[in-house]
């Protein structure tokens, strides 16, 4: 499923993004499947040892030399990620059908990341998608707060208040 800046373009405010973030329903031990697809579309790994990098970081960056495009393949291993994979939205992009994370799951990813740009992205998604499932987002942020040092749910509620979705 597509997450990150490309999903923000679908659900939120337009912004410049130079990469594609793809979460795959695989664990790092299944890197060979990613490598096969990457090779088929002309992508090359941007790290010296993709296997070691994948096991340490749960992501492997690839590049497309002719265009300079970067594609990050992110491995999934948590119950949250597996549920998010079941909630994808299939969107026609030209002749292709592309699997995007739901707006709720993009919000969870963005708030978990917590960088200023991510929080702006989350605010834009909330403003343009007033029907998001606030309960779903709050539940997962509450759960993910257990592994984060940040008050994720409180951050979400503050953003939702700013755009008038909650009191």
What does this protein look like?
With 167 residues, the chain is α+β, with helices and mostly antiparallel strands. It contains eight helices and seven strands. Strands 1-2-5-4-3 form a five-stranded mixed beta sheet. A hairpin with a 4-residue loop joins β4 and β5. The protein is globular and about 50 Å long. The model has no long low-confidence stretch (mean pLDDT 94).
Number of helices: 8
Strand order of the largest sheet: 1-2-5-4-3
What is the H/E order? EHEHEHEEHEEHHHH
Q: Could you say which structural class the secondary elements and strand pairing correspond to?
A: alpha+beta
N/C terminus separation: 32 Å
- Contiguous runs where pLDDT drops below 50 for at least 5 residues: none
- What is the mean predicted local confidence, pLDDT? 94
Helix content: 40-55%
Which sheet architecture does the biggest sheet show?
Answer: 5 strands, mixed
Q: What does the radius of gyration come to?
A: 16 Å
Q: How many beta-strand segments?
A: 7
Strand content: 15-25%
Shape call? globular
Task: Present the secondary structure layout.
Blueprint lengths: L1 E2 L1 H7 L7 E6 L6 H10 L3 E2 L4 H8 L1 E6 L4 E7 L3 H8 L2 E5 L2 E5 L2 H11 L2 H13 L5 H11 L7 H11 L5
Characteristics:
single chain, 167 residues, alpha+beta, five-stranded mixed beta sheet, two-stranded antiparallel ribbon, 47% helix, globular
Question: How would you concisely characterize the structure shown here?
Answer:
This protein is an alpha+beta fold and 167 residues long. It contains eight helices and seven strands, in the order βαβαβαββαββαααα.
């Amino acid at each position: 499923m597509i997450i990150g800046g490309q999903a923000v373009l679908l659900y939120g405010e337009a912004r410049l993004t130079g990469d594609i973030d793809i979460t795959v329903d695989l664990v790092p031990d299944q890197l060979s499947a990613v490598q096969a697809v990457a090779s088929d579309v002309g992508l090359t790994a941007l790290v010296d040892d993709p296997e070691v990098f994948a096991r340490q970081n749960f992501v492997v960056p690839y590049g497309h030399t002719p265009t300079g495009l970067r594609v990050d393949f992110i491995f999934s291993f948590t119950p949250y990620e597996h549920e998010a994979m079941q909630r994808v939205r299939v969107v026609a992009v030209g002749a292709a059908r592309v699997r995007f994370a739901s707006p709720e799951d993009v919000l969870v990813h963005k708030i978990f990341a917590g960088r200023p740009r991510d929080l702006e992205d989350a605010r834009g998604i909330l403003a343009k998608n007033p029907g998001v499932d606030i309960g779903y987002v709050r539940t997962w942020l509450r759960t993910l707060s257990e592994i984060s040092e940040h008050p994720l749910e409180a951050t979400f509620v503050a953003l939702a208040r700013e755009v008038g979705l909650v009191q």
